[in-house]
Design a protein that fits this description.
Layout: H1 2-16, H2 42-48, H3 51-55, E1 90-93, E2 96-100, E3 115-119, E4 122-125, H4 131-141, H5 153-156, E5 175-179, E6 195-199, H6 226-235, H7 243-250, E7 278-279, E8 283-284, E9 314-320, E10 335-336, E11 354-358, E12 378-381, E13 389-390, E14 394-396
Parallel strand pairs: 3-10, 9-13
Antiparallel strand pairs: 1-4, 2-3, 4-14, 5-6, 7-8, 9-11, 11-12
The protein binds calcium ion (2 copies).
């Protein structure tokens, strides 16, 4: 299969006449009407039949409820500097105050308003959790990921509009969401087109049934849902980062950078991260060397020694996704160690619960969400896993 893909890529390169010359990237227009590349509703919507299920039943939300019962966490801020005892595979992120939210001109409303945030010091994994690392956890505990478990229709339908018909039994077998290149697709406003509910897909079979992680031990683990990431973190004596910790760390000590490496355009070579070149979603030229995941640490680290804070795979953080969350916070006084909104709120689909994911993936490019930006974020249904979503952990300083 991989060989076949390589052949196709070579054929495309020859057709484009750019085999031995520097490649001119195809620059797509930005899609204004849509902002996310994920299907609204995650696996529940795909299993139940696609975009119509969600779009015909949009919930009207009372905007007055947005400002109710805001929960802020005002823990004692610690900026103590620890020089010794950094756990293996982690770096110390010294706490501080930064401005969180929108930087650059490809931002989304959910990234506003910019607001000051203070985070305490913590340790952070230098790289996304790999297949090899996740296997140690599974071997030790027998843990089965969400994507490996049978689906209970009674639970699933709670995340769908009332009256949604039960899908065929074969769709309720364990599986995950798999991105499929769609040659010829030019309408980018329906992101159900390039995601498929694929039975038999999970972290051990990341590209679908029959695929494996052999030879991908150092690639980030994928098809991880929120509960899976939390379970791993707990077992490892760690936890998931808050979005504020993640964004602070991604800045790498720079002041208001667009990307973890600064403001150099993501499309300028040499590439700084694993993202999508070509024509989304029809043709991935993989000029950066990677069609899907790359081994962790294949690109330069940011100023804090953190790899792949942009691209490769999205990273699950602990905050609930609420696109109006930042409007609840002070723009004058730093919020100390914010842990996210009290509620999950995503206008496109408020049936499911969503968590925040950060950093973008090998599927991101400027024509869509440009989510390799430090301040970018997307929602992920808490019961859904995908082949471009993984995570990394942090640890408190004792
Ligand atoms: Ca790539
Ligand atoms: Ca990443």
């Amino acid at each position: 299969m991989i060989f076949k893909k390589l052949l196709l890529l070579v054929a495309f390169s020859l057709m484009l006449g750019c085999k031995s010359e520097p490649k001119q990237q195809i620059v797509q227009d930005k899609v204004d009407s849509k902002t996310d590349c994920h299907p609204q509703g995650g696996r529940s919507a795909l299993i139940a039949g696609g975009s119509d299920v969600i779009n015909q039943h949009k919930i009207q939300i009372d905007s007055n409820s947005i400002h109710e019962s805001i929960e802020k966490t005002n823990e004692i801020h610690s900026d103590k500097k620890v020089k010794e005892g950094v756990p293996d595979g982690m770096v110390l992120i010294n706490g501080g105050t930064f401005t969180m939210g929108a930087v650059g001109d490809l931002t989304l409303p959910r990234e506003y308003p910019r607001h000051p945030v203070t985070v305490s010091s913590f340790y952070m994994d230098t790289h996304e959790v790999t297949n090899a690392e996740f296997k140690v956890f599974v071997d030790a505990t027998g843990y089965k990921t969400i994507a490996e478990r049978p689906i209970d229709w009674e639970e699933l339908k709670k995340q769908l509009p009332a009256g949604t018909p039960k899908p065929p039994e074969e769709n309720l077998r364990p599986g995950s969401l798999l991105f499929k290149l769609r040659p010829g697709v030019t309408d980018l406003t329906n992101y159900f087109q390039w995601w498929e509910w694929t039975v038999g897909t999970n972290w051990k079979h990341p590209d679908g049934p029959g695929s494996s992680i052999q030879g991908k031990e150092s690639h980030p683990v994928v098809h991880i849902a929120y509960a899976d990431a939390k379970a791993y973190a707990q077992w490892a004596g760690k936890r998931l980062p808050t979005e504020a910790e993640w964004e602070y760390a991604a800045q790498g000590g720079l002041k208001d950078p667009i990307y973890p490496w600064g403001d150099k355009d993501v499309n300028d070579t040499p590439f700084e991260c694993n993202f999508f070149q070509g024509q989304f979603p029809s043709f991935n030229s993989s000029e950066d060397g990677y069609l899907t995941t790359a081994p962790v640490g294949s690109f330069k680290s940011n100023g804090y020694g953190l790899y792949d804070m942009a691209g490769n795979v999205w990273e699950i953080v602990s905050d609930k996704f609420d696109e109006d969350y930042y409007s609840m916070l002070s723009t004058e006084t730093p919020t100390i160690n914010p842990k996210g909104s009290y509620r999950s709120y995503y206008r496109e689909n408020n049936y499911a619960k969503h968590t925040v994911i950060k950093g973008g993936s090998f599927l991101c490019n400027d024509s869509y969400c440009s989510s390799y930006r430090v301040s970018a974020k997307m929602p992920l249904e808490t019961d859904s896993a995908m082949n471009h979503v993984g995570f990394r952990c942090v640890q408190d300083i004792k």
